[in-house]
Amino acid sequence: MNPPTRDLHQRGFTLPEILAVIALIGILVSTVVTSFGTAEQELAMTSSKDTLLNDIPSALISYRAINGSLTGVVKKDITDTGVSANGPFGDTWTLGTPAARTVSLGWLITSAEDADSFGPDLATALGNASGSAISSATYDDTSDTLTVNYRIP
Description:
The chain is of the alpha+beta class. The chain has one domain (16-151). The chain has helices at residues 15-67, 75-79, 115-127; strands spanning 93-99, 102-108, 134-140, 145-151. A 4-stranded antiparallel β-sheet has the order 1-2-4-3, with helices on one face. A hairpin with a 2-residue loop joins β1 (93-99) and β2. α1 packs across α3. The chain starts with 14 loop residues before the first helix and ends with a strand.
């Protein structure tokens, strides 16, 4: 009886080759997942910035034009104009009227993947916007709240 012989031209992959391919696939998947996370944050930033720079001031200006003052404006008055009742990550926002021409918006960012990065970035972007109704934008990292103050002439 002859011992089995090994065919040197046998087709297939060796274990090191398979492990190398699995490692490369893992690296590619992690890169793609990270890219989607970054893209989601950028989309949320753009959407948030547009809402806070355009939609909210438009709603406030409209309310003031109809009522003569911002006194008494409530969140429902803003959301009735089509502004979402939630922020970019599903968190709700609150509205306060500390003065007749001033409105303070408190935007929770607790559901963001990295609120302590997203909040200050958004506050900075809003603060750098020229010609807007925003008088100030600050981020409180203890409550994950972005506070945006509007002054409507």
